[in-house]
Design goal:
Layout (H helix, E strand, L loop, with lengths): L8 H20 L7 H14 L13 H12 L5 H9 L2 H4 L4 H8 L1 H12 L9 H17 L2 H15 L6 H21 L3 H15 L1 H13 L1 H21 L4 E7 L2 H11 L10 E7 L4 H18 L8 E2 L12 E6 L5 E8 H9 L3 H4 L9 H15 L5 H10 L5 E5 L5 E5 L4 H8 L1 H5 L1 E6 L2 E3 L11 E5 L16 H33 L5 H10 L5 H9 L7 H7 L3 H9 L4 H9 L11 E3 L9 E2 L11 E5 L5 E5 L3 H9 L4 E6 L6 E10 L4 H12 L3 E10 L2 E10 L2 H12 L4 E6 L2
Parallel strand pairs: 2-5, 11-15, 12-14
Antiparallel strand pairs: 1-2, 3-4, 4-5, 6-7, 8-9, 8-10, 13-14, 13-15, 16-18, 16-19, 17-18
Length: about 750
């Protein structure tokens, strides 16, 4: 952690005034009406309010609001109201000033935005999941009244991520986790492409520092060669654009580190095998809206004339924009050295909306972006979810997240009406999207005269007829068929009405049982019961009781008679003996959550344990989660469950590092290649004899000329696994070798 340099009060004041001067200069260069006086007033007000206060890094606190205000004007293009709110966004939260003071000095609009920002201060997520969900509700409610609240919050989060290096490691994990979980998807949904990409890259940098450094080094290493390839690719297109009289600019860019990492992980390939790292953007000036789309397609032909185009990678967002307002024409063409290069063709107006999304509405009020229809649709969905809130915090966040970050498909009703849905949507999702009553009574769908079930996943272009029946009623298993926030929310509300009665019945059975056994019902006992049945809430337990799905149901009680006490003992104590023994076997040492926790896999009794969801080994990026028994439970940083833990229970996280190795980890390596006699012998000889690694399982099968092998080995670290994969790939005819578990 870098130490903040020491400055004299005069030097600090000069630095603050210079930083403010940069904000003012950016504002004066914009095309907003020049309301310098109120901006100056807001800055002076904030500077006085935060006087003497410092950030964790040691720098004067006022530099944070100034930095947020600079992002608001320079990167979001918002106006004086938003700049003032950015200066003042922490005043009510951190000082003695009230909302009324802000309103008296700056008026109701600025006060309202500051109040919205104050309600969601401290991050979207608190230490408890219920607080997390409540803060998120506040964010969305504020956004539904004035979307500038969330735009300024984005600027606030972006600056916090840029200065995350001054935080303790476990705080870095928490903030990076919630950034990836909600803020980046929210930026995506609002069309803030650059901010979304930077948030993802910064989160990736702190979650996987080594992998981030490796990818960035390789990107920088190949920069010169990449520029040569792109220039060779666009040269003939430049000539055609010039000849046709276009005013344009061509930008070359590389995929972000985070998206490269995701592709490497998804496809299990090294950096060198990622072929679509390159991207080219053509931005042309256009003064005639009627010609905009035609000119996009004209430029498209300039690329197709001289290059081979990938037939499955054409994306026409000019005719049907994305839900966040994005419009462009995308194609992927073959460049030099057999490299696929993505091309994005946009007018200047399209580019502004692509970079700023809904923020462009405030930057360019004079016709550049005046179509708020899609934003209104989305906000109506958000209001709809908020009107029927999900009581379970994680379910609520997942429901909202469904609505934030999904590719889209376009389907049609029998009358030809267009319906936009997230990719993966089913017939049931469409039914609920059209009308709740249609969803409740839906029994099937009909596509091209063919009947399909409720669970059938729709494709873009499908024309779907919903078939209903008055006798049809929603079933709990329908939840598995719902992939949209609206359908899930509607269905939960319907099922919850029936569930309430079951919960009350189950609670009565439980309380009667405890009363007869003479045991006082406590939270501790309930936690043990929930753990035994792998349930997350007591309501789930009560429903199972009411439905006779577990042993201590009312029906079983009647059968058990005098043996109830022994059954009670079995349920409440015995199932947890193994867990207690497991917990006791973990070497206890004081857990200082402010320091990096060193993992010792080579000890006879390791000072951690694993959860069942992922299988990290020494060398993997892992984080520790301190459970109720003060045991450190390990997860891979990229594990989906770890993502939730980072978001919901930040205070329980502990940063970790491996302090040793131990040859007791089981790993499976997937091998693919061309089949030939003796290949199996060479694999086993390389692994067992040459590398001295213990093979625990081997499953090999050949089909025609190819073979696939799953090799399970006992190893000590990721380093050894990488060595195994590298040596296997040296064997003739083996094309791929990668770790899959």
């Amino acid at each position: 952690m870098a130490e903040y340099p020491h400055y004299t009060p005069e030097e600090e004041d000069k630095m603050i005034e210079e930083a403010y001067g940069e904000v003012l200069q950016a504002y004066l260069q914009s095309n907003h009406r020049k309301k310098v006086e109120i901006i100056e007033k807001a800055f002076r007000f904030a500077k006085e309010a935060h006087k003497g206060v410092r950030r964790r890094s040691g720098e004067p606190y006022i530099l944070h609001p100034i930095a947020v205000a600079k992002i608001v004007i320079s990167e979001l293009g918002l106006g004086s109201t938003s700049i003032c709110a950015a200066f003042l966004h922490d005043v009510v939260e951190d000082t003695e000033y009230t909302r009324e003071d802000i309103e008296a000095a700056f008026g109701p609009k600025i006060a309202s935005i500051v109040e919205g920002l104050t309600k969601i201060s401290g991050g979207i997520f608190g230490d408890k999941a219920s607080l997390q969900a409540e803060n998120f509700r506040k964010l969305l409610l504020s956004m539904s009244t004035d979307i500038r609240v969330v735009l300024i919050k984005m600027a606030d989060r972006l600056h916090n991520m840029r200065t995350l290096g001054s935080m303790r490691p476990e705080k870095q994990y928490k903030i990076a986790g919630e950034t990836l979980y909600v803020y980046a998807p929210l930026a995506h949904r609002l069309g803030l492409f650059n901010i979304k990409q930077e948030l993802e890259d910064l989160a990736f940098k702190y979650e996987h520092p080594q992998k981030y450094a490796e990818i960035m080094a390789k990107v920088e290493q190949g920069e010169k060669h990449r520029e040569e390839i792109v220039e060779e690719f666009v040269r003939p297109v430049r000539e055609k654009l010039d000849a046709a009289g276009f005013k344009y600019e061509i930008k070359a860019r590389v995929k972000s580190a985070y998206s490269i990492y995701n592709k490497m992980e998804t496809k299990q390939v090294p950096f060198e095998e990622i072929y679509d790292v390159y991207a080219v953007r053509v931005i042309f000036e256009n003064d005639d809206d009627a010609m905009e789309k035609i000119r996009c397609w004209q430029i498209y032909t300039f690329f197709t004339d001289g290059h081979t185009v990938h037939p499955d990678r054409l994306r026409d967002w000019t005719s049907t924009p994305k839900a966040n307002g994005y419009r462009a024409l995308h194609l992927t063409a073959m460049g030099p050295e057999g490299r696929w290069i993505e091309v994005q063709i946009r007018s200047r107006k399209m580019d502004i909306v692509a970079e700023l999304g809904y923020a462009a509405h405030w930057k360019y009020k004079t016709g550049v972006y005046d179509d708020d229809q899609e934003l209104d649709k989305w906000m109506n969905t958000i209001k709809d979810i908020l009107a029927n809130p999900e009581p379970n915090a994680v379910d609520f966040l997942d429901t909202i997240k469904l609505n934030l970050f999904a590719s889209e498909i376009y389907v049609f009703t029998p009358k030809g009406d267009l319906q936009r849905l997230p990719a993966g949507s089913t017939v049931l999702d469409l039914a609920f999207a059209i009308h709740t009553e249609l969803g409740i009574h839906c029994i099937a769908g009909k596509i091209n005269h063919r009947l399909v079930p409720l669970s059938y996943k729709l494709d873009s272009g499908d024309q779907v007829e919903i078939i209903t029946s008055d006798s049809q009623t929603p079933q709990p298993e329908w939840m598995e068929f719902c992939h949209t926030a609206k359908a899930q929310n509607r269905l939960r509300n319907i099922l919850r009405k029936d569930r309430k009665a079951l919960v009350e019945r189950g609670r009565k059975v439980y309380l009667d049982f405890m009363d007869k056994e003479g045991v006082k019902p406590t939270k501790e006992i309930m936690q043990k019961i929930l753990g035994n049945y792998h349930l997350t809430s007591d309501t789930d337990f009560f429903v199972m009781l009411a439905n006779d799905e577990i042993n201590i149901s009312a029906k079983k009680l009647k059968e058990l008679g005098k043996n109830r006490s022994s059954i009670m003992a079995k349920i409440l104590r015995n199932p947890f003996a193994s867990r207690k023994e497991e917990a006791d076997s973990v070497k206890k040492e004081p857990i200082n959550r402010k320091e990096v926790y060193v993992l010792h896999p080579d000890d006879a009794e390791p000072n951690y344990r694993f959860d069942t969801c992922c299988s990290p080994i020494p060398g993997d990026d892992v984080l520790g989660f301190v459970d109720d028994d003060e045991n450190v439970v390990l997860h891979k940083v990229s594990c989906p469950n770890a993502m939730r833990l980072k978001s919901a229970f930040g205070s329980r996280l502990v940063a970790t590092r491996w302090g040793g190795k131990a040859e007791k980890f089981i790993v499976t390596i997937s091998i693919d290649g061309i089949d030939r006699r003796g290949i199996l012998e060479e694999i086993t000889k390389t692994v067992s004899d040459q590398l001295g690694v213990n093979i625990r399982g081997l499953n090999i099968a050949a089909r025609q000329e190819l073979f696939h092998c799953d090799l399970t080995v006992q190893t000590d670290s990721t380093e050894t696994v990488e060595t195994i994969c590298r040596e296997l790939k040296k064997i003739k005819d083996i094309k791929f070798a990668k770790r899959i578990s």
